[in-house]
Amino acid sequence: VVEVNRILQRLCNDPASIQMMKSSGLVEGLLSTLEAFPSNELIEKTVGKTLAKIMSDSIDDLITTLKSPDASESEKQNAMRLLAALALDSSTGGDMIAKRGGVGAIIGAFKNAQNAAAIEQTARAIANLAATRTNIEELVKEGAIPELISMLNSGKGSAKANAAMIDALGRICAIPVHGASVVQAGGIPAVIAAFNRDPDDIGVVHSTAAFMQQVAKTPEGAAELVNNDGIG
């Protein structure tokens, strides 16, 4: 998979090849590959980079679809699925999404998500965007912290969605000032409650452990963990 994607990336230097890839159904195939290997970081980054090269000229259209009141729920979910995948490549896809105003659109879609599939796709997009400091700052500015905590507390998300939301909060906490904001907004009890709903889900377990490790690096976070009795 990795070697094939590296070949595809080289082919993306030719505009005609990119057009052929789009029309051949390759994009859907790449998205299916990501879904088949959800925990393989190397495949995620490699496929994300390929998608970013193929779809770089479509990011504005995807963001417009998210914002459009006329777009169907299915169209918005498809757009979010692609944006989440593009954000896996933080150096290209994620940066382009942020620079073109996509972070606000994604947070807006997350806030208004009404079903488990929509919540999961938007949560993945937010977690993927939170891979760089610049994007974390943009996410925080657009209100990601209270929205993530509110959605965790709502219990509407699947285990996969909750794992992505906890991942996002953990990455945000890597910046101490924002970690303090997560603690103050009730992030620790929200994460613990989400963990207790799905204590056997490996994704939730891993994301919760990473979150707790990050939060415990600050005195405020460590004290709050003690106050909440850790993971129940």
Structural overview:
There is one protein chain. With 232 residues, this protein is mainly α. It is built from 16 helices and no strands. The longest helix is centred in the first third of the chain and has 15 residues. The model has no long low-confidence stretch (mean pLDDT 93).
Structural class: mainly alpha
List low-pLDDT spans.
none
Order of helices and strands: HHHHHHHHHHHHHHHH
Counted by DSSP, the helix tally is 16
Radius of gyration: 18 Å
Q: Strand tally, please?
A: 0
> Can you give the helix content as a percent range?
over 70%
Distance between the termini: 40 Å
Shape: globular
For the report, how would you describe the main beta sheet? none
Mean pLDDT: 93
Range of strand content:
under 5%
Summarize the structure.
This protein is an all-alpha fold.
What is the topology?
Layout: H1 2-11, H2 15-23, H3 26-36, H4 41-55, H5 59-67, H6 73-86, H7 90-99, H8 102-112, H9 116-129, H10 133-141, H11 144-154, H12 159-172, H13 176-184, H14 187-197, H15 202-215, H16 219-227
Helix pairs in contact: 1-4, 3-4, 5-6, 5-8, 6-9, 8-9, 9-12, 11-12, 11-14, 12-14, 12-15, 14-15
Keywords:
232 residues, mainly alpha, 16 helices, globular
